[in-house]
Write a structure and sequence with these properties.
The protein is α/β, with parallel strands linked by helices.
Length: 315
């Protein structure tokens, strides 16, 4: 049965990678209805580049209006497709079958969400390359509530770098969190799974996407990740996430040794230490002074909104 697909992409200062993404979306084998771009800061968007593109709509936001979950949920309310593909501006489809292969997952009525495999970009470091293969293996699978005992936190793993959702279920279960610092994809995937749905990992749907984060960037990112987990115990309180992180470090160390790159082990240990420190600090963010929370977070606008909301409630 044919299902209409729309695409949503949040952007901020889009560049060459975004242009490549848009070109690849134009060449997909499965037809796309509308591409909705939720752009932060109009002055940074190259409007003239996309003005004549058929099926592309751009909505501009201020920096203060952007929210990881809220902006995506707002976009979902503008779209009328059966399935919506959420992507980020730095994810480029490997081939023209990305949308087609994600849509195939929904032939199973139990699948309410599906996400793509993320491949390392050409400039990706060796450690990050292994992390990609650890989180995005070459075998597809469908995850449900029955897998929680075996997979733990990985049961809820889903990434809006490139993820598709069944929109009737999206609306039924409230969509993405309207105000969240991070992890809106996993929070919502958890809701779907706990309500009897399944999330598919489509290894044959591939995008190039990777980052070479510095140690401090890893700390900031893991701080925000832990804050989101702390704020949603109804999802993350059901499974352990630290054990998965430890498994990744051990397997990466083994991989580096076997690959004949033992000199990269100190870098792995240093990166992992910063990740762990960020995670532990994020888990106790509510006990830290505001200035320190702001310094540790990657998403400082989130905390400004929190302050505004708190002040309005107290006034």
């Amino acid at each position: 049965m044919y299902q209409k697909v729309d695409v949503m992409i949040p952007t901020y200062k889009p560049g060459e990678t975004f242009r490549q993404l848009m070109e690849m979306l134009k060449n997909q084998t499965y037809p796309i209805g509308e591409i909705l771009i939720m752009n932060t800061e109009e002055k940074y968007f190259p409007e003239e580049t996309y003005r004549d593109w058929h099926g592309v709509r751009v909505i501009h936001l201020t920096r203060e209006e952007f929210d990881h979950g809220g902006t995506r949920d707002r976009a979902a309310n503008f779209l009328a497709a059966d399935l919506c593909l959420f992507m980020t501006q730095d994810a480029v489809p490997k081939d023209e079958h990305l949308v087609e292969n994600l849509v195939k997952c929904f032939e199973d009525p139990k699948v309410w969400a599906a996400y793509a495999r993320q491949l390392p970009k050409q400039d990706c470091s060796l450690i990050e390359r292994y992390t990609r293969s650890f989180n995005y293996p070459d075998k597809s699978r469908v995850k449900s509530k029955a897998d929680m005992g075996k997979l733990g936190i990985k049961t809820f793993f889903c990434s809006n770098v490139c993820a598709m959702y069944r929109m009737d279920r999206y609306r039924e279960y409230g969509g993405f969190e309207k105000h969240t610092i991070f992890n809106e994809d996993m929070i919502f995937a958890g809701k779907l799974i706990l309500n009897g749905g399944a999330v598919a990992y489509a290894a044959d749907a591939m995008v190039y996407h990777s980052h070479n984060y510095s140690c401090l960037e890893q700390l900031h990112r893991n701080f925000d990740l832990a804050v989101s987990q702390k704020q949603h115990p109804e999802i993350f309180g059901l499974v352990s996430s630290e054990s998965e992180g430890i498994r990744l470090v051990k397997q990466t160390a083994s991989y580096l040794a076997k690959a004949g790159k033992p000199w990269l082990l100190p870098e792995l240990i240093l990166q992992s230490g910063f990740k762990f420190l960020g995670y532990r600090l994020g888990k106790c963010y509510d006990k830290l002074p505001d200035f320190l929370v702001n310094a540790l977070s990657m998403n400082k606008h989130y905390w400004k909104k929190q302050t505004v909301q708190k002040d309005s409630r107290n006034s």
